[in-house]
Amino acid sequence: MLKRQGVIEIWHDRRIIAGENIDRAIDEHINSDEIILLLVSPDFLASDYCYEIEMKRAMERHAAGEAVVIPVILRACDWHHAPFGKLSATPRDGKPIIQWPDTDEAFLQVAKAVRGAVDSLSKRTSAPAAQSRIPAPPVALLATGSSGPRSSNLRLAKLFTQRDKDQLQTEAFDFIARFFENSLVELAERNEGVQGSFRRVDANRFFATIYQNGEDVARCTIYMGGGAFGGGINYIQGHASESNALNESLSVQADDQSMYLRPMGMAFMGGERDPKLSLEGGAEFFWALLIHTLQQG
Predict the structure, then answer these.
(1) CB 243, CB 226: distance < 8 Å
(2) Which of 20, 153, 167, 198 shows the smallest number of beta carbons within 10 Å?
């Protein structure tokens, strides 16, 4: 929609044609374009050209108020310690796009961040001269241009509502269901004589089964909420249609900066006393419970 409405024109280095000077083409855009998206992943951080040249110049222009830099977190990586780590990233809370059960929703947040940056730039250029001498930073970003001494402790506590926690629980359950379905397929492809079965019973429950040489060797039920356990995402060995039992559970918790999944017990896995798991970490935790018997054998 941003392109269709003529709000933005897009350029990226895949548009460099054969015979064109690559460095010159990139320099021309990175020194003139008003909004620069950093597509952040482990590969981005590992690339000397992206990190030392493109990102460095983009941050210089952002600090000077000449451009808006928006980090787009594609995959999980240690980006908070990068020079752009002080900027407000998209999608929400810097959650990597590949960890969203619905990636369309994640990319929608990216589009909204770009639209917000455009609106901010428009207000900046249309403001009276007296007001535009000290431009306000874009809504989606934090100011990074100060070179004077300052504290490194600038993070304020965030407040997460019950609605936020309920939404994350639903996202986590859907992610775990997709994770199990895909993992069962891959497990069968990689191991001769092994088959997997995934069945979504309803919006809040699914069954997973692993067969080896035709015999069922592992079964589980994963369901959300219900019964005397007051919610959470629960794991049962075997197939069960009732919500009155569990062997393990993940609940949504929050600290002053983020929400996360916390296991009830950690079962046989050891590790931290009070682990903070991502959606992928929670899915891996349950998956390890399912295939533990096979791995032991």
Answers:
(1) yes
(2) 153
